[in-house]
Every structure is written in structure tokens, then in C-alpha cells.
Amino acid sequence: MHIIEGHGGHHPNDPACPAYWPAGSDDSRDPGAADWWEEPGLAALLDRAVSVIERLEHQLHQPAPQDYQRALDWLEAVCGGPEAVAALDDSPLREPTDPMPTGASPSERERLTAVAAILGHIAAEFFDPETGVALRNGLRRLWAAEPLVVCGGRSATQVAAGLSWAVGDANGLVGRGLVTATRLKQFLALPQTPGVYAQPVVQALQGFWPWHHAPMPWALHRLSGVSRPSEVTTLGHPDLLLGRVRARLIRVREHARAAERADRGA
Questions:
Q1: Is the backbone of residue 238 left (phi > 0), alpha (psi -120 to 50) or beta?
Q2: DSSP H helices in 102-211
Q3: Measuring CA to CA, which residue among 104, 181, 10 is closest to residue 21?
Q4: Which among 145, 158, 168, 257 could bridge 174 via Cys, Cβ 3.0 to 4.6 Å?
Q5: 129-173 residue pLDDT tens
């Protein structure tokens, strides 16, 4: 590299400075040589940057979504898509006929059995029988989504802690004034708070679907019955939600649909 003098103001080592060119790229360089922005890697990077800017500009010009649309977006995040929202019911959760996932090796079944037993102890100590079903549903969902999270955890207790915190949070059962992280940590003799173990569980259960990150509209606070709308975890699986929670979601859905019909008919 060499520096061309006289390109005012820029630090000589600043790559943004026009004087910072490869050796031989002064004013007498071959006019047919490719410019730096024509390098394949840089060209691709510029194309991506332009596409991102164009998408952001398009979003800026989009009208703000109506409250009912924000409510429906949030419901899709909670339930896992529009079809799941449409199929919501409020019947209590029931144990499946086969409580254990199939296709597991003997060592994997041993871990699954141990986690399920600990989830049963957690439900008996802090929650109710239906929550115990939700926790075991969470274990089956987690095994189907990412078996490594179940079997790769340091202990069955830590896996159970993560599941109970994630599913408990999705149902508004944990946090200040409810089942606290400190109580669950002490009960399970955990080295860290249960929220730490919940992180890989939540990521695996949510997957990569776009609806998992819709925030809950504050206007739905009382209607949904959720006391901490900005903090409740959306897992995207109705079978991890208690019947009374799904009943609240149905009320949100019907209010949102009524508002949508009124808006379209106006």
C-alpha cells in the first residue's frame, strides 16, 4: 500500500480516505482496472446493505397497524401461527395416552424419565395438576424440537428447572408475587437461577418462526389477564397453556376479530 498526498482532511490510514488505495492505484492507474467497489465480496455486501435500506424505507412508509392487528399478531406469537389461534379452545389439559416420547435410546429414556419425575415434584410443590401436564407437554415438545437440550444438560434437575420456568412464565405463574426464581432455585438446589436454564429451552421451543417475537399490546393487559404483558414468554404451543389462560386468549381473539370486522365494514 502507499499513500497519495494531498487528499485533504482524512487521516492517511483511514480506509474511507480516497487516498487509501492499493499500490499502483494513483491517478495513472490502468483505466480499465476494476474499481474497489467492483470486488465480488464488496459488491455482494453493498447489495445486501441496499436491500436492507430499501426494506426499512418500505416499513417506514407502511401505516401503523390497527390495535386489532397487533392483538392478532401477539396471539400468533403465543399460539404458534394463525391456524393455532383459530383452533383455540379452553378445555383443561389432559395427559396424553403415551406420556413418554418414542424413539429414545435407553440412556435418553432414563434422562427423560428423570426430568419428568422432577417436573412432577415441581408441580406438586408450586402449581396444580394441570400445570404438571403442561410441564410434561413441554418436555415432549422440547424432545421433539431439540433432544440435545434435554440430554445435553448437565443434570436432569437443570433441564426441569428450565422447562418449569419457561412454561410457568408462558402461563403467568412465575415472577414477583408468584413462584419466584429464588424459591425454585432453593427447592431444586440449583447453582444458578432457573431463568438461566430456561434460555435454551425457550429458544428450542420457539424455533425460527417469525411470529414468536410479537410484543403484547398494552391495551390487552386486563382483557388477557396477564399481569406482566411485556415479560411473558411466548412459546408458540397452545398445549403448554392452561385452560384458563387459553380462555383469556379466546376473549382477546374474539374482541380483535370484532374490531377487525367493524373496521372493514366502516
A1: alpha
A2: 106-126, 129-145, 147-151, 156-170, 181-188, 194-206
A3: 10
A4: 168
A5: 999 999 999 999 999 999 999 998 889 999 999 999 999 999 989
**Spatial CA neighbour of 69 closest among 255, 213, 210:** 255
Tell me the β-bridge partners of 21: 2
Task: Give the list of residues 6+ apart from residue 5 with CB closer than 8 angstroms, or none.
Answer: 19
Which residue ranges make up each domain of the chain? 2-61, 67-265
Nearest to 204 by CA among 237, 180, 179: 237
Which amino acid is residue 161, in one-letter code? Answer: A
Instruction: Tell me the C-alpha distance between 158 and 172, whole Å.
Output: 21
Q: Give 43's contacts (C-beta < 8 A, 6+ positions apart).
A: 37
CB 137 within 8 A of CB 240: yes
Asked whether 252 and 76 are in contact (CB, 8 A), the reply is no
Q: For residues 98 and 194, give the distance between their C-alpha atoms in angstroms, rounded to a whole number.
A: 28
Residue 5, phi then psi, degrees to nearest 5: -75, 155
The model's pLDDT over 71-88, given as tens digits with 9 standing for 90+, comes to 888 888 889 889 999 999
